[in-house]
Amino acid sequence: MYNAHRGMVPAPNSRLTELLDQLRQEFESQSRSTGEFEHQFTGQLQEMEMIRQKVYQLEQTQVKMKQDYEAEIRMLRHELESRGVQTVSHIAPTAHTAPPGQPPQVGHGPSNLFSGIMANANQGGSGPGLAPPPPQDQQPPPHALQQPVAAAQPGQPLQSSFGGYPPGAAVTGYGGPPPPPTASPGPGKTRRAAPGPATPQPTQLAYPDPRASPQIRPTPPGTQATAPGRPDRPGNMLANWNPEDLPPSQKREGTDWYAVFNPEVQRVLDVELVHHLSHDSVVCCVRFSRDGKYLATGCNRSAQIFDVTTGQNVATLQDENVDKDGDLYIRSVCFSPDGKYLATGAEDKQIRVWDIASRTIKNIFTGHEQDIYSLDFAGNGRYIASGSGDKTVRLWDILDGKLVYTLSIEDGVTTVAMSPDGHYVAAGSLDKSVRVWDTTTGYLVERLENPDGHKDSVYSVAFAPNGRDLVSGSLDKTIKLWELTVPRGLHPHSGVKGGKCVRTFEGHKDFVLSVCLTPDGQWVMSGSKDRGVQFWDPVTGNAQMMLQGHKNSVISVAPAPTGNLFATGSGDMRARIWRYSNYTGR
């Protein structure tokens, strides 16, 4: 195009092309810069990934070295112990892990109850690692320490879903006489739980006067318990007797166990090992089925069920939905009376009720805020009592799958037991007390404590077969036999009664971790951190026998309903089934 004044000028299309070329060049320049940045970023990511992999490899190497080191230490310690040399552990577990074969560090307090006992799971000796509970500045109210489901009107019992039992109903309980033949685990061999109980019968005497009961014999006039250990005569301190110093008539020896019989009283018992049941972890609890055919044990992440006759493992119950990392100890196991279900209480605050035949979970009860340490079924099989470090005892209905009561106290609950008729639940606590509640109302009816009570935390309680006596074991190294004075037929607001301590058994050298009575009520059994199991005469308080059958704390002892059998579970990763019998003088 020609302009007379300006001459030739570029056409519009050529100017646009020039601008586009400039934009293309700038875009290509920016693209090259972006590519360089991406390349640098990719290189940095690769470098970070290499560093992460190296750190991970170093962590794995450190874990492997630690495991190898601890395994070697355990092997050396085991070899030393087999030669009779006491060992002391110098391995301090970290805050997040526990050495193999050792329960988690669960110390004193609401969330950690058992660290003092289990802090040295692979070493012997004594020495509490559990601090005493804090002083109680205030005494609890004389009654109703908890809020029941609904308020009771003065002079009337609380109508709850828990209730009592129909008059004349045949009920059995912990340590009671064996029930009629019931279904054992296996397909097609189940029996449905009885329907719900009838209206509470608060005026009905469940048991006669215990002094008239043949299950706990009255103390003969003038009978005195053997002194709990004098310098020249050990008395009930049977662990002080050297088996080599005793004649054959006062001892019994096996390949890796022995029993000592008190030389100061007449020997009337004998004992033998029936089965040795090895586990992969500490055995926290043992419990027989009500028909005596099976033994359940609780350990890390699983519960095991063994055939009592053969000693064979017939079931392993493990929740596969639980996180596989870390430890999860089963602290308590309990069969339903018909043998159809097994309840387990664990450190994840959950109660699982297993259908044994199908190996499936029937119920999961949640609500506890800390580890669950103890469970017990009611005699009718419908209700479960649980005790937790969250300072509560809770009653659960497995038929309706719901919570019935929450019974609160001032400190962590370590142990619970249901009376044989199901009317009462007892609990031991870190505050040194034993409490008993009426399950038909939720009211506290007994508080067993000083001046005759324990001087340290109570770790085990069990009802006698007559339902009116109770035994408790404590970190004060003693066992106590209580005669309950529950005011049956009276309104709870008549006041909390204090049961009478009728016997104190002294002789263990360390914490008493588990207590129970034989089904006939003739013997009190106890397991201790001193590795021993002792049989006590409830009338005289004398120790009859001390059994040394484990290499670590005896955490749990339990009687079988039949056959004079009992079981023990220990920190040495073993459970054992034993038989006691009348001594024939051989």
What's the short version?
By secondary structure, the protein is an alpha+beta fold.
Radius of gyration over C-alpha positions, nearest whole angstrom: 32 Å
Got a strand count?
32
Arithmetic mean pLDDT: 76
- State the helix count: 2
CATH-defined fold name of the domain at 210-582: Methylamine Dehydrogenase, Chain H
| CATH H-tier superfamily of the domain at 210-582 | YVTN repeat-like/Quinoprotein amine dehydrogenase
Low-confidence stretches: 89-111, 120-215, 219-233, 488-494
Distance between the termini: 137 Å
Shape: elongated
Largest sheet: 6 strands, antiparallel
Main CATH class of the domain at 210-582: Mainly Beta
Instruction: Tell me the helix content.
Output: 10-25%
Strand content: 25-35%
Query: Which architecture of the domain at 210-582 does the CATH hierarchy give at level 2?
Result: 7 Propeller
Biased composition (Pro residues): 130-143
Keywords: Repeat, Repressor, Transcription, Transcription regulation, WD repeat
Protein name: Transcriptional repressor Tup1 N-terminal domain-containing protein
Domain Transcriptional repressor Tup1 N-terminal: 15-83
